[in-house]
Amino acid sequence: MEGDSGSRVESEPTRVMIAVNQSSIKGYPHPSISSRRAFEWTLQKIVRSNNSGFVLLFLHVQVPDEDAFDDMDSIYASPADFKDMKHREKLRDLHLLEYFVNRCHEIGVNCKAWIRKGDPKEVICHEVKRVQPDFLVVGSRGLGPFQRVFVGTVSEFCVKHADCPVITIRRTAEETPRDPVED
């Protein structure tokens, strides 16, 4: 395909960034419902059987000190305890990405995965600018207006600020926990 130097060659795979996170449900160390839903939707509706035509780019944003103390008010710990907590947190993050990478490997879809630290909405938009995917897929909890005021939504921010098209995938009613803020 001929074109200006900024356009992609036809034979290059479509690069789909998928922002993923861990489940917030206690005792559930797995991908969030919304992340799994966004991933499965991408496979079913975008990739379909054209495995070689796509590269999935998985981004997990680690929120600093997220769940570091499991809702404790205070903690008395040694430097070794903090080092151990950071190590466990890193393992959880790697386990999260391993889930998606293994699934891609099983079905023959090329992928890359990485972790960044910071405010998810800001980091996702920064990574979109840096990596320049063809589009971004994010899960959405489908919160109502009242809940959005207190919880905020990463997906809404990305739709407004990401430098590429954004597809938001809502969880189904069957997938929604009793507390819709949980994911």
Explain what the structure shows:
- The protein is of the alpha/beta class.
- 39% of the residues lie in helices and 19% in strands.
- It contains five helices and five strands.
- The chain has a five-stranded parallel β-sheet with strand order 3-2-1-4-5, with helices on both faces.
- Helix 1 links the parallel strand 1 and strand 2.
- The radius of gyration is 18 Å and the shape is globular.
- The N terminus is likely disordered.
Q: What is the topology?
A:
Elements: E1 14-20, H1 33-47, E2 54-62, H2 79-107, E3 110-117, H3 120-131, E4 135-140, H4 145-151, H5 154-161, E5 166-170
Parallel strand pairs: 1-2, 1-4, 2-3, 4-5
Helix pairs in contact: 3-5
The span between the termini is 43 Å
> What radius of gyration results from the CA coordinates?
18 Å
User: How many separate helices?
Assistant: 5
State which percent range the strand residues make up. Answer: 15-25%
Task: Tell me roughly what share of residues is in helical segments.
Answer: 25-40%
Side-by-side strand order of the widest sheet: 3-2-1-4-5
Low-confidence stretches: 1-5, 144-151
